[in-house]
Amino acid sequence: MNDHRISKACSNHKEKICCNGNLFIISAPSGAGKTTLCKAILDRIPNMLYSVSYTTRKPRNGEQNGIDYYFITEDDFKNRIKNNKWAEWAKVYDNYYGTSSEFIDASLAAGSDILLDIDFQGTLQILDQYHDSITVFIMPPSLDILKLRLKSRGTDNKDTIARRIAVAEKEMKNKNFYRHAIINDKLSVAVADLISVIEKYRTGRE
Ligand code: ADP
Ligand code: 5GP
Question: Ligand 1 pocket: which of 39, 146, 147, 153 to mutate (most atoms <8 Å of CB)?
Answer without folding.
Answer: 153
